[in-house]
Amino acid sequence: MITTERADDVLVVTLDRPDRRNALTPSGLDALEAAVTDADTPVVYLQGAGDAFCAGADLNVVADLDDPQEFAAHGQVVARAIEDGEPVVVAGIDGPARGGGVELALACDLRVGTPDASFAETGVELGLFGAWGGTARLPRVVGEGEAMDIALSGRVVDAEAALRMGLLSRITADPRAVADEIAANDHGALAVLKRRLRDGAGTTEQERREADAFADLHAAADFDRT
């Protein structure tokens, strides 16, 4: 269900269940968490096999859940592993992201889509909603008004609309190239920048941590003036 391949400084992680539009089961969530947590590359590129990014949770699993709260918490743990881990995680979205697939994409540091990328929180149609951290991350990314519209309507957001609201960072024919572009930068700086940009501390404390991190990087920098 999850495959990995290292390509230089990028670990390519593929949600590889195209017959189910890469929908995730509990074992798939575990495998995804392990792939990201164990990555020894500065950048992870997360993609879906076939014509979809991820349909979210496998509805066959959801229908038979004995403990829905535990399942929601399981997905939240995986999303936090993506968000809090050291590697920069780039989601390459070529096709639909739905429900939990949107939530996993929101946990990534960048979301880069092709013109075929689209997003929708379709759970509301079934009397549910995505519970892998989406109600926290979606408003942070697109603003409360857009988040309310997306969540309550279940409408499909195409690539251009997603770019305008910040749900996509870029639209390109080759999202993977963005992962390579990022990985070409200094690896230590990438890790520090991710931590600082993800820092939820108040401004004064964040500025102090920023200055400390800059000093640490400066001490290790190689200033080649030739």
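Above is the first protein from milestone M3; the second protein from the same milestone is given next.
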Amino acid sequence: MEIGQKVKIYRLRDRLSRRNIAGKLGKTGVIRNFKMTDGSGVGVIVEFDDKSATWFFEDEIKPVE
């Protein structure tokens, strides 16, 4: 995964903010940055067409070809 890459949200892990991001399932967006998650993992910040952005674990997204 790299910044600027287009990705699709294909699954959601359980997180406290899941309610807010459930509507992003199946949507596509662009990776804008990386985020340390829990000290042992890296997440990605994805920006969508409506200019909203949130972070996802790498196993929640797939590259769009």
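Note on the second protein: The beta strands are 6-9, 28-36, 42-48, 53-57, 61-63.
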